[in-house]
């Protein structure tokens, strides 16, 4: 799945990271944000030990999951529940070479879009 | 990793000495090995998940008074996380191997290898968020589209302000309890110790935009001022996300081979060691569309009840501080001072160069 303005998931990932979780600078526009790697987000400090990076990744994953489920009313796809969703997010967030686009792809794999009547 | 730029030169004018010099430059350039490793990994990564979590980075070590020396940094980090219902608790088992190896060991300023297994139990307190109605989500998703369509236009700020009405979370506290077992050594294994321990992680996020908690992020004040001065922020506003994270605890250290301790003690008894670590990362400024991040990390180790001989030999305590300013285009400046366990003396190291990721090739 490409990083594109036409994707609802990409738009959601970008704004949740930037506006709600303050992980991306306010000055970074949508297009270049997809290529940012995890160590270019606020929570990932390359100077810190793995114990601290792990803890920060878990905080961001839990917060991100709560926003998607409650603010965006996303549900989990058949093979996921909250446990496996947060675990999958932590795996992506802890990998400093993964990009925001990768996070968006994983988000698309985990969460189903809201069903409208 | 510092990039080296070679001067273009007519190959026909190279003398044998020049050729040898150029060849040595190529052989000693870590980029050569990083390129080779990145290509090997991209070829194998789908066939072997171990490689996906394994990171090997060749680099040049620079120690005071010694010439640069080639070596590598390795890191393997894998974890398995289980989360409770509503994600209030989490349990994680992780394996972490990391260290720096210089091909000439006496040139290694961070001569500390750690192999660690860790089990953590985590609590997330707060972070409550009300569920939106379907009509709210319709509005939120429409505003999201409009923000992105209007980036750089006056309407963007108004739309962002409006969006905040639809996403509101309370402040979040994090507490992690860790039981770990680690094996620590220098790269020649002349100093080795086993160090099981109990650690506590603490974290806080001021997610609630309406609370004053962000004003408690005092370490961010100088950077909030810098962001204001450089125009990346319109107001003096500390970050809600960049509160320092803390890790502290007690290790039970069992030295198995330690020449430094042997030199001052008649026996190699186990001892308790207090450890403390604080980490901080925040946006410092945006210059010429490049985001500059400031990161700092401080680690402190202290042997509890250390004997007079250990104190006099300066082996009772170790402290280590590192900070850097890193731009999103890869440029960085860094400063490191202090020593980790096994380091004989404190070193100060300055760094300046470019970092680029090799592992994101697709």
Summarize this, please?
The complex is a heterodimer of chains A (117) and B (362). Helices cover 54% and strands 3% of the residues of chain A.
SSE order and pairing:
The complex is a heterodimer of chains A (117) and B (362).
Chain A: H1 8-20, H2 30-33, H3 50-71, E1 75-76, H4 82-94, H5 100-110, E2 111-112
Antiparallel strand pairs in A: 1-2
Chain B: H1 16-27, H2 30-44, H3 49-52, E1 54-61, E2 69-83, E3 89-102, E4 113-126, H4 134-149, H5 155-163, E5 172-185, E6 191-205, H6 221-229, E7 245-258, H7 259-264, E8 271-287, E9 290-303, H8 308-312, E10 317-327, E11 331-338, E12 347-354
Antiparallel strand pairs in B: 1-2, 2-3, 3-4, 4-5, 5-6, 6-7, 7-8, 8-9, 9-10, 10-11, 11-12
Helix pairs in contact in B: 4-5
Q: How is the quaternary structure best described?
A: heterodimer
Based on Cα principal axes, name the global outline of chain B. globular
CATH class of chain B: Mainly Beta
Shape of chain A: globular
Count of discrete structural domains of chain B: 1
- What is the makeup of the main sheet of chain A? 2 strands, antiparallel
Strand content of chain A: under 5%
Structural class of chain A: mainly alpha
H/I helix tally of chain A: 5
* Tally of strands of chain B: 12
Q: What fold name stands as the CATH topology of chain B?
A: Porin
Helix content of chain B: 10-25%
Structure write-up:
The complex is a heterodimer of chains A (117) and B (362). Chain A is mainly alpha-helical. Chain A contains five helices and two strands. Chain A has a two-stranded antiparallel sheet. The radius of gyration of chain A is 13 Å and the shape is globular. Chain A has one domain (8-111). Chain A has helices spanning 8-20, 30-33, 50-71, 82-94, 100-110; strands at 75-76, 111-112. The radius of gyration of chain B is 25 Å and the shape is globular. Chain B is 21% helix and 42% strand. Chain B is of the alpha+beta class and 362 residues long. Chain B has one domain (17-130, 168-354): Porin. Chain B has a twelve-stranded antiparallel sheet. Classes of the chains: A mainly alpha (117), B alpha+beta (362). At the A-B interface, α1, α3 and α4 of A face β2, β3, β4, α4 and β5 of B.
């Amino acid at each position: 799945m490409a990083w594109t303005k036409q994707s609802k998931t990409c738009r959601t990932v970008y704004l949740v990271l930037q506006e709600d979780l303050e992980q991306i600078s306010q000055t970074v526009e949508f297009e270049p944000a997809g290529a940012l790697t995890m160590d270019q987000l606020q929570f990932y400090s390359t100077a810190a030990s793995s114990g601290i990076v792990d803890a920060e990744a878990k905080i961001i994953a839990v917060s991100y999951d709560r926003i998607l489920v409650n603010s965006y009313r996303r549900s989990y796809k058949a093979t996921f529940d909250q446990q496996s969703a947060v675990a999958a997010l932590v795996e992506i967030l802890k990998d400093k070479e993964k990009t925001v686009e990768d996070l968006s792809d994983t988000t698309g794999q985990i969460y189903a879009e809201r069903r409208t009547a | 990793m510092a990039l080296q730029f070679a001067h273009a030169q007519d190959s026909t004018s190279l003398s044998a000495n020049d050729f040898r010099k150029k060849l040595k430059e190529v052989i000693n350039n870590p980029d050569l090995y990083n390129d080779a490793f990145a290509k090997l990994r991209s070829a194998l990564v789908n066939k072997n998940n171990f490689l996906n979590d394994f990171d090997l980075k060749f680099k040049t070590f620079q120690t005071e008074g010694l010439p640069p020396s080639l070596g590598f940094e390795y890191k393997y980090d894998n974890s398995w996380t289980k989360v409770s219902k509503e994600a209030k608790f989490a349990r994680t088992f992780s394996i972490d191997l990391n260290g720096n190896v210089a091909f000439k060991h006496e040139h290694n300023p961070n001569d500390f290898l750690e192999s660690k297994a860790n089990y953590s139990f985590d609590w997330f307190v707060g972070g409550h968020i009300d569920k939106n109605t379907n009509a709210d989500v319709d509005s939120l998703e429409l505003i999201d589209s409009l923000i992105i369509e209007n980036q750089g236009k006056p309407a963007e700020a108004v739309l962002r302000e409006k969006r905040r009405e639809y996403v509101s979370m309370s402040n979040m506290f994090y507490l992690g309890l860790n039981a770990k077992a680690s094996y620590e050594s220098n790269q020649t294994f002349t100093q080795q110790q086993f160090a099981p321990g109990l650690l506590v992680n603490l974290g806080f996020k001021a997610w609630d935009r309406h609370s004053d908690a962000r004003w408690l992020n005092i370490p961010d004040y100088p950077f909030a001022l810098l962001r204001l001065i450089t125009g990346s922020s319109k107001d003096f506003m500390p970050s809600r996300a960049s509160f320092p994270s803390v890790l502290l605890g007690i290790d039970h250290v069992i030295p198995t081979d330690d020449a430094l301790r042997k030199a001052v003690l008649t026996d190699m008894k186990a001892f308790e060691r207090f450890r403390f670590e604080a980490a901080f990362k925040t946006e410092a400024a945006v210059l010429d569309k490049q985001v500059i991040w400031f990161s700092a990390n401080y680690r402190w180790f202290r042997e509890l009840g250390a004997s007079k001989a250990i104190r006099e030999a300066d082996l009772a305590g170790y402290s280590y501080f590192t900070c850097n300013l890193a731009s999103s285009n890869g440029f960085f400046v860094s400063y490191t001072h202090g020593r980790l366990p096994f380091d004989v003396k404190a070193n100060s190291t300055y760094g300046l160069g470019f970092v680029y990721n090799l592992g994101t090739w697709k």
